[in-house]
Amino acid sequence: MRKLGLTIIDEYVIRKFLGTFFFAILLIVMIAVVFDFSEKIDDFIEKNAPLSAVIFDYYLNFIPYFAVLFMPLFTFVAVIYFTSRMAYNTEIVAILSSGMSFNRLLRPYFISATIIAIFSFILNNFIIPDSTKKMLAFEELYYRNRPATFTKINIHRQIEPGVIIYLERFNTYNNFGRKFSIEKFEKGELVSKLLSDDIRWDSTKNKWIVRNYYIRDYEGNNQTITKGLTIDTTLKITPDEFKRRDNAIQAMDLIELNDFIASQKMQGSSNIELSQMEKYKRFSIPFSTFILTIIGVSVSSRKAKGGIGMHIGIGLMLSFAYILFMQFSTQFAVGGIFNPFIAVWIPNIIFAFIAFLLYRLAPK
Fold it and tell me: What is the pTM of this model?
């Protein structure tokens, strides 16, 4: 590390930062696993979940998912804890008295925060989604209840440019829909419309079967009407689109998520904000590592009368305030009041201002 221009103090701070960070993750994840297992053990026993599946399919994938989810919090707690210990042992005073400025002291903190932020970004966007798929698949088999019958009502979507479908209701258990229609437009004008009593997915043919259909084709002022009992049709949508849970987007990597958002925009989905917020969170959460690091150093670098406990208490209060702001602002996006990008980044903007104020007040 000396070749990178780092001093002994830099190496010391980086070791302390990363060591405390990974220890905090290990400790809190172990506690989370114990509480989660105690909550779900009855469901595992009731649905005869194999022990190997519980360990390897669920908890082996639950651990990285949980760790990345609260990585900014772990970063903040780690900074508060080891920096307050350095301040309590007058190490911070000694470092600043030796001629090192407070800004220079922040350098190893930012190096460590950069490592954690890159680690978080890569995990969140390209590794965790795959493990989340396995975890969600396990939950569907051994934890969650079967989706309710006719959970989807009044479905109205654009499945491709100029093609709009409507379903009065769709049964996610037997892939059967009632009162189906499909409209095709060209240059903004209706050219064809199909109405039918019901529609069913044929898994052997991977096609939809429409029953008791009525098609009206428009050619200028002329109309052609076609009736029939059954007809196979290929639509750019499958039953999985109707069965997908909201948290399924967490199992998509960044490329899949971008494609899914583009597809949802084209279809005119009503809950596209959830997908957009998931995407923006994957960028805002790694960035928050730097903001929370500055706050943590600024708060804990000064020796307080309450000792380390006072610093940890302030740190936990600020970290939970950050989580509260995140949850509060995202609810406005779901309600359509805020743009999803603004809603996700509001906590970072507010806490960046707090970080600036605390930095100005920190001992120099």
Answer: 0.77
